[in-house]
Amino acid sequence: MVTIYGLEDASTGAAYIGCTAGKPGKRMREHRSLLKAGKHSSTKLQEAWNDHAGQFQMRVLETMPAEVSVIEKRERELSWMKHYRAQGLLLNENEVSFQPTPYAIARGQLATKARAGTFTQSPESNLKRRLAQLGKPKGHGAKISATKQAKNLR
Fold first, then answer.
1. CA 33 from chain center: how many Å?
2. Does domain 2-113 have CATH number 3.30.470.30?
3. CB contact at 8 A, 59 and 8
4. For the chain, which end, N or C, has fewer CB atoms within 10 Å of the first or last residue's CB respectively?
5. What pLDDT shows up at residue 81?
6. Distance between CA atoms of 139 and 104, rounded to whole angstroms?
7. What is the pTM of this model?
């Protein structure tokens, strides 16, 4: 099942609209974790949270079957965004899902090699990963581990 939800500020009625195929409660915990850390991608939502943290609640706006197409999900999500925007109560930075924020674009966070698909691991990095998977310590990890074990024996 797909859920379109709103993280609603009960004091103002403003809401951040989102869509999840998972459990809404889990998605709320993820948002809450980012907001408490001050690291949410939506600055409007972060500012509202900083002002009224205890007054936010998740409201299920619409549910759809899991078989629904991505296009239909996005259309319904946009419909809810337009509804809240018309009232001046939308806290989303972007109207299109998964669109990067202007801040991310300005900082160049989207042009990483990993996202562009051109990133390859170096032979040294592959060797380090292989050794770690074999259970062999890398660097000075063995010394630190031995020190911790010695402290535990006292």
1. 9
2. no
3. yes
4. C
5. 92
6. 34
7. 0.61
The residue type at 144? I
Residue 25, token pair as written in the block: 């409660």
Structure tokens at 80: 């809810």
**CA 84 → CA 8, 31, 124, distances in Å?**
11, 19, 52
Q: What rounded mean pLDDT belongs to the chain?
A: 79
**DSSP tag of 24:** H
Q: Are 5 and 16 in contact (CB under 8 A)?
A: no
pLDDT digits (tens, 9 = 90+) for 33-56: 988 888 888 888 888 898 887 788
Residues of the chain with CATH 3.40.1440.10: 2-113
DSSP-assigned letters across all residues of 48-90: HHHHHGGGEEEEEEEEE-TTS-HHHHHHHHHHHHHHHHHTT-B
CB 82 within 8 A of CB 74: no
- Per DSSP, 134 falls in state T
Specify the residue for token string 């939502």: 45
Q: pLDDT tens for residues 109-128?
A: 555 544 555 567 788 888 88
The residues pairing with 8 across neighbouring beta strands, listed in sequence order, are 15, 57
